[in-house]
Amino acid sequence: MTNQEQDPCIYNEQLNANQHESKSPAACLDKEPAEEASSKKPITFSKGSLREERPSHPNKAGDARTARMGTGSIPKLIMEFAVPSIVGMLVNGAYNVIDSIFLGQAMGEIGLSVATAAMPLMTIFMALAMLIGNGGNALAALRLGEGNKQAAEKSLGNTVCLGIIAALIVAALIHIPACVEAILALSSVTPDIRDYTYSFMYILALGFIFQLIGMGVNNFIRTAGAPNRALATMVIGTISCIAFNYLFVLVFGWGVVGSALATVLGQAISCVCVLWYFLCTKDVAFKLYARNLKLEAEVVGLIISLGAASFIMQLAMSVINFLVNYLLVLYGGQSPLGAEAALASIGVVQRCAMFTVLPLIGIAVAIQPLLGYNYGAGLISRVRSTLGYGILIATILGTIMWALLHVFAFDIVSFFGIRDDSLRDFTVFALNIQVLVLPVVGMQIVTSNYFQATGQPMKSVILSLTRQVLFLIPLYIVLPLVLPYIAPNLTSLDALYFAVPIADILSVVTSLIFILFELKRLKGIEAGTIQAKFGKKSA
């Protein structure tokens, strides 16, 4: 089938101000509207029965919010989606930073070491949330672009169900001593912080359900055309986390237990807000119904395939965190700083670097529903424009973040509670090296998310692997052995930090090659010489 450059908008009504009415959650979950046939003829992403589903009864206000993604000004839409998305990513990432700040202020380097040791497990949790949430959301955006609301609702329901199952598995595993010991060993936990780290991990694992549902389903709110509402749910959770951290850690003196409880409670509040939106809010583009909680192998397979890139990227980060913790204990023990000081330092660097990358991820996440909707509707020129604007904005934002870090590096490091002068100077040096090529990293992140949004998960996976695994892990292993001989003024511990900018440069070059071939493919779709499809055609 050739590309159909067709306006996907069903309604001509102007978008009115949302008027939300609350209902009982049970009533919202159990009732489902009547079905109505769609008049759209978009690119067919055939996948068995999913393509045969008819959309639910149209909700004029909700449908208008999603339909404008195929008709509105692309720069305006990107800014509308990007601002709440960027702030939302910063807010969501603030959980780890908040824990580190409060623990650092209350317990010094020991508190920072605990937060660093627990980071690999927290990254795994993030990976699972992104696997289910990003995959389900990408599928929902594609189905909305097709005009198939019912399939989008099925994606939402299956995402929630998968989240519940994954959280139950995590809660069970944390009670298995062998699993706990393996995680602690892989995290290179020293005897002095072992008990602290276990308590921190245990509480976070039990409360994982709130992070998984709250974070994963939050993306659906953005796809439903309400980015500000998506942001609000995260802001509420983060403010709660800060308030509980202050109360539990600084006032009650509960240490790592108090910090973990504060994080879980903040995530729980955010989770409730997210579910409330899809259960009890009127004029929503698509809703959560009980019947869609039943898992369907076809839907689950698509969710996992589309979320695989995000999962692999985060899982790779967890593997890297395990490796880095081991190398820090090894080379840190050989340096005057010591192993625990090295762990505290890398903890600060990782969190600062993560905070600078999160706005770039926010841009990629913001344009994802726009890419998915327009690709699903066959509006290829809008897909190309959205990608271009996304890369440009990410590059500008990365440059700004790089400049701010270099100017305020000393103040930022001091804010985390590092008091030793030599450790503080080393951390500032490490931070500046880690973000050396930040201005161009945004292009790689946007490109990887583009392939995820347009139903090309394998390309997205490959790009994610280049930056997080294929380039970075070998560099982490080789550079500490080689660089001190090339530059005698640098130690093996110093060399660890040069691995990230080198890996970033290599991954950016790889992404550039991928995107040049993709632009050629999009031209072929427009010309009708290439068929745009997602998934396998049913028999």
Fold and architecture overview:
It is a single chain. The protein is an all-alpha fold and 539 residues long. It contains 20 helices and no strands. The protein has one domain. Helix content is 76%, strand content 0%.
Q: What brief labels describe this structure?
A:
76% helix; disordered N terminus; globular; 539 residues; mainly alpha; disordered C terminus; single chain
Give a quick rundown of the structure:
By secondary structure, this protein is mainly α. The chain is built from 20 helices and no strands.
Detail the topology: elements first, then pairings.
Elements: H1 25-30, H2 49-52, H3 60-67, H4 74-107, H5 109-146, H6 149-173, H7 177-186, H8 194-206, H9 208-223, H10 227-251, H11 255-280, H12 297-333, H13 339-376, H14 380-415, H15 421-434, H16 438-453, H17 457-470, H18 472-486, H19 492-496, H20 499-527
Helix pairs in contact: 4-5, 4-10, 4-11, 4-13, 4-14, 5-6, 5-8, 5-9, 5-12, 5-13, 6-9, 8-11, 9-10, 9-11, 10-11, 12-13, 12-16, 12-17, 12-18, 13-14, 13-15, 13-16, 14-15, 14-16, 16-17, 16-20, 17-20, 18-20
